[in-house]
Amino acid sequence: MKRINHTIVGYSVLLCAIIVVLVPSRFMSDGMGRYTYGYPLTSITIYQREPNSIWFGTNFFTGNDGLHINPLSILLNVIIIYVVINFVTKRLKRRKETISD
Q: Per-residue DSSP letters for the chain?
């Protein structure tokens, strides 16, 4: 079994947090409205009665009616992003080795 690259894990966690904060959501109204955050899987849902803002920071700190954080989804997001980053870095290393030879 190969070892886990802790640097890439750190980048994956950081990228998951940045995606939640910087990518806006849209208001979905199925009864009580909600904003969903997280990519590729939804990890945080904020419930509101009336639309407030599309940004995570504004909705998290002001006037929400409920908050749902899915830790399994956060873990899966980190794993998916880790696999993608690891794949890309291995491909780039392999390409550099073939170019230099």
A: -PPP-HHHHHHHHHHHHHHHHHS----EEESEEEEEE-SSS--EEEEESS---SSHHHHHHS--SEEEE-HHHHHHHHHHHHHHHHHHHHHHHHHHHHHH-
